[in-house]
């Protein structure tokens, strides 16, 4: 994909300064750019790299425009403009309708003629695959699954029976959507499985990372709102609800029936207990341990950052005594108070 | 599946109050129930929902029976009775024996005629698949694997060579059982892999979650007892042994050669070091960091719950000084003791 | 594989004491050994087991050689020698070249005639599979992927388009290499995906555990050096670089653009933030939370080990007050200092 700067600027809504006939065909980092590449300056601390860049054009903000030796596209949000330009230069391959002859497709499945079903993919009874959908190799599309228009299953995605996927979803390899969740009643020492009859329901523009799991609801559904983005290795328990545009980084786990609001960001390896309520616009930092509801927007954290092991061992030993240390501190305060009063009496 | 209350009560061992001819066909939550549904009251805090429920019948305990406007099934353990009723109303689809024509089955594999092998599944040499087993689509059943009667592999399960699965197991998509574990000897800077010649051996009624891994033993076997239940994304290292009816929630990892007793519950994202001994009836709460053996039954915890990030940063800074703070506290106590003694001498 | 001790000693470079005609055919633990097995004593605390072992031969160090009732192979590094002997006794099955008829191979892929492509595996356009490579069942080899000589993909491995794998790699089931990483720009509340045009590049002798993910670079590549060993369930973000012979245990996650040196060991469930720099020979203990760069070799730790829940709750409550406790301690020190000065003045 090759495009000249005049056309690119128009398509991403940036203002061009420099030769509009210059052609770019791919993106590159400022310090690794070559002729024909488009780069960007998102962070002022890399400004010094502008002088020596070999990019054919750079996206940057008004404040940096004068310092660039090559044509520039000026934007109020250079990173977003770069994302949009990169999508123009590196579009996904177009979807060509059809079913690979090695796929195993149940005759009752309804596959839009503009959708692609890849090699060695299984499509079970009554599944419905919408227009423009790309189902890559080795996927399993369970009974009664529905996939909305223009969604893309990269490869080896498993959608268990009844799962609903919205439009323009992007599902990565190893994702498992709609597994029967972890629900048991206890009968003495024995665990009795409770049938999980709800579904997993994904909105539009949802992304699910590699090897991420979203369990189906026990009764009622597990629901991911529009624009929810999940990274790799995430666990979403049964009946969790996640609001629109909330994003989660890798290795995070959300226990059953927890409800998370809109526009939250949840960093990597966070753990949330079940049946919690998390408001809109809540942000958790990495490895946060979430054991109660958070009803106010804000940034929340937990955990002990790494330190040299010797110091860590000494401090951890004290942590085990922390309640006792606090009691001794209180005792000292009381003793000092008494001594002060005694001294006061002596002096009066 | 539709059933009248008289028959349902008899099958689950509950006592019916109300019209035994009423039919139910599925389960629902109290506040989302409609005609034809069966609901339950497990927790007294939802008792107020009874008055307005539209369920056709409710399972509850003796204490709540009078407050229910619809027929009730009285049980000493409503949640367990509900689980059993739900299993009657929502049975798994019966297994029809056969092998899908797209499966790749080695001629030396022995598949019981009442077992099903799904589309695009691989069954390698000398595998043995028992009566009533369901092997879903896209599974890999390695060489010499044995699967006991009535087990169910939902889809895309990988059983590596030699893995043994008991009866009535339930294995979810993405599970990998019997991988060669992480064992190396060091040769200077280079790692030399140690062949892993043990097996993974799963008892009866074991459940393995989506994308969960159970590594084979290095020498000797990795062993999961009867009734062990593992949620998604769990890692079980080589030569781990887990006692009967122990359950683990998602994202937990158990390092090699650790032995866990019976009837333990291990919450989500717990990490255990290797070569530990965990007694029967031990319970770890979420994200617990287990670095030593626990030989007494009980509940154990660790971790710092999330708090506003500003407060967290201040407290973490103090944690780094904790040993020093404890020493200063001790010093203060000593000083005060000396002052008190001095004061005592003055006063005498 | 049966071998006599004279030949085995020569091949592993150990010195034999005892009957060189004795045959061994497999390895076993000292206390579970039987005739025909080779065992080893790596840790002096098991020395008492020597007297009663039924092994046909034992690998051990000079210091223990006299105490063994059966033939011994003396080595300076018994564990390494055992690893090498075990590899001789338990070699992987030889790779027989060919393509299983059920595989779906694009005609433009180049597969060396000595390589094996297993049942129900997909090989896409322009992939290149080197000599002696074993691609097990149900793998997906994406467009333009290259796999170096003698690598082994056990089963169900996914290599996304463009991924490069070196020689003698070992990739376990469920691994996903080269996924498009988690990169978005924000447009108001909406997330805009940034195309991920880099690759995942794995060196020689790399091992990737079951269900482990290595994302491709955003711009530029994600790079794993020679001899890198990753356990199961690991997440490697886009543009991470890992130096030669660094090993990581299960459930660890490394965020984007972090660079890790050579010969590091990273234990289980460690989490690293993005854009960090970790020096060579750095070691993190289990569940460490790495939020800043570590530029000096050493051992680093974090986290709170598990304790009885009651004590934990009390100590955690104090942790929330830790900054306040430290201020009160400082206040006490000041008060005491003032009292001491006052007392000093009185006494003078």
TrEMBL record, chains A, B, C:
Superkingdom per UniProt: Bacteria
Keyword Transmembrane helix tagged: no
Sorted UniProt keywords: Acyltransferase, Lipid A biosynthesis, Lipid biosynthesis, Lipid metabolism, Repeat, Transferase
Domain Mannose-1-phosphate guanyltransferase C-terminal: 122-217
GO cellular component assignments: membrane
Gene Ontology BP terms: lipid A biosynthetic process
Reactions the enzyme catalyzes: a UDP-3-O-[(3R)-3-hydroxyacyl]-alpha-D-glucosamine + a (3R)-hydroxyacyl-[ACP] = a UDP-2-N,3-O-bis[(3R)-3-hydroxyacyl]-alpha-D-glucosamine + holo-[ACP] + H(+)
Family: Belongs to the transferase hexapeptide repeat family. LpxD subfamily.
The protein's role, per its UniProt record: Catalyzes the N-acylation of UDP-3-O-acylglucosamine using 3-hydroxyacyl-ACP as the acyl donor. Is involved in the biosynthesis of lipid A, a phosphorylated glycolipid that anchors the lipopolysaccharide to the outer membrane of the cell.
Family matches, as NCBIfam families: lipid_A_lpxD (TIGR01853), PRK00892.1 (NF002060)
Protein's name according to its UniProt entry: UDP-3-O-acylglucosamine N-acyltransferase
Species of the source: Imhoffiella purpurea
Gene of this entry: lpxD
């Amino acid at each position: 994909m090759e495009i000249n700067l005049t056309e690119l600027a128009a398509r991403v809504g940036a203002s061009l300064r420099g030769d509009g006939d210059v052609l770019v065909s791919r993106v590159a980092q400022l310090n690794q750019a070559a002729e024909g590449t488009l780069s960007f300056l998102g962070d002022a601390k890399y400004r010094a790299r502008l002088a020596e860049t070999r990019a054919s054009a750079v996206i940057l903000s008004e404040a940096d425009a004068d310092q660039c030796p090559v044509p520039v596209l000026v934007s109020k949000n250079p990173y977003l403009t770069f994302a949009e330009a990169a999508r123009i230069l590196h579009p996904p391959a177009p979807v060509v309708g059809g079913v690979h002859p090695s796929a195993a497709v149940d005759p009752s499945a309804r596959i839009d003629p503009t959708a692609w079903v890849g090699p060695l993919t299984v499509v079970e009874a009554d599944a419905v695959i919408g227009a423009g959908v790309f189902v890559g190799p080795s996927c399993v599309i369970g009974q009664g699954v529905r996939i909305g228009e223009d969604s893309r299953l990269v490869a080896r995605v498993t959608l268990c029976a009844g799962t609903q996927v919205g439009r323009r979803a992007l599902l990565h390899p190893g994702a498992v959507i709609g597994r029967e969740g972890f629900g048991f009643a206890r009968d003495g020492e024995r665990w009795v499985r409770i049938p999980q009859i709800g579904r997993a329901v994904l909105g539009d523009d949802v992304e699910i990372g590699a090897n991420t799991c979203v369990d189906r609801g026990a009764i009622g559904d597990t629901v991911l709102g529009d624009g929810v983005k999940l990274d790799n290795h995430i666990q979403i328990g049964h009946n969790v609800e996640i609001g629109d545009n909330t994003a989660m980084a890798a290795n995070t786990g959300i226990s059953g029936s927890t409800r998370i609001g809109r526009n939250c960001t949840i960093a990597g390896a966070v753990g949330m207990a079940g049946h919690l309520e998390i408001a809109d616009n809540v942000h958790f930092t990495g490895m946060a341990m979430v054991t109660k509801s958070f009803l106010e927007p804000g940034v929340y954290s937990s955990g002990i950052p790494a330190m040299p092991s010797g110091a860590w061992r000494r401090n951890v030993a004290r942590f085990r005594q922390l309640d006792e240390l606090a009691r001794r501190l209180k005792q000292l305060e009381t003793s000092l108070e008494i001594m002060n009063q005694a001294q006061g009496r002596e002096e009066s």
